[in-house]
Amino acid sequence: MQVFFRDFFSDPVLFLSFGFLSVVVLLCLFYVGFFIKKVMDAEVPEGQ
């Protein structure tokens, strides 16, 4: 396991790939939470 971490931090392509992937996943989670919050807080127009 120690060899994996040494290779992970010494290889910039692998490090940046997982870095950008984590940023994309965090943005997706943020927008899912944002969308759910907006749907829950939305006002239903009366008369329909």
From TrEMBL:
Membrane-spanning parts: 12-36
Keyword terms of this UniProt record: Membrane, Transmembrane, Transmembrane helix
Source superkingdom: Bacteria
Protein name listed in UniProt: DUF3149 domain-containing protein
Organism: Pseudoalteromonas qingdaonensis
